[in-house]
């Protein structure tokens, strides 16, 4: 499906500024032991954003939180071809989440279904003390009662519009674009 680019919403400097602000907000909201914080980035771009947040937190307090990526494909409810049974393999998270503050990280929140799937994946792995959610862009149009605890930028959109978060690791450029389906 071709996409017609309309405008650049954030350049790389704006994204970095938002990530630094969010890193401080995470630390302010979670004043207990920073070792109890872990970041799980929803693949693919959420994983890169989680790494950037972990880098920022380490620069601020000198302690790097545990960070990993999270594949939520098996836990989605909007992909009919995916079948998850109770005996399905647990998500691959290389550290315990039991009793931790888990911060899920994603590039864009839209319907809320990815966030719901990520929460289910984490809960199958263990019982965290709490789950918080970061989205670089909140574009609205929620189908589930889920909202991020941390937002880089609110961008009200039409359903026909597309938000593209472009990161050097996956896209070779660093910005957030607004486009429209042609």
Q: Can you describe this structure?
A:
This protein has helices at 12-29, 45-61, 113-125, 168-171, and strands at residues 3-11, 37-42, 66-70, 101-109, 130-138, 150-154, 161-166, 175-181. It has 182 residues and is α/β, with parallel strands linked by helices. The chain has a 5-stranded parallel β-sheet, with helices on both faces. The radius of gyration is 16 Å and the shape is globular. The mean pLDDT is 92.
Overall geometry comes to globular
Q: How many domains?
A: 1
Strand content: 25-35%
- Look at the helices and sheets and give the structural class: alpha/beta
CATH topology: Rossmann fold
SSE topology:
Elements lengths: L2 E9 H18 L7 E6 L2 H17 L4 E5 L30 E9 L3 H13 L4 E9 L11 E5 L6 E6 L1 H4 L3 E7 L1
Parallel strand pairs: 2-3, 2-4, 4-5, 5-6
Antiparallel strand pairs: 1-8, 7-8
Summary keywords:
globular; Rossmann fold; 4 helices; alpha/beta; 31% strand; 5-stranded parallel beta sheet
Provide a concise account of the structure shown.
With 182 residues, this protein is α/β, with parallel strands linked by helices.
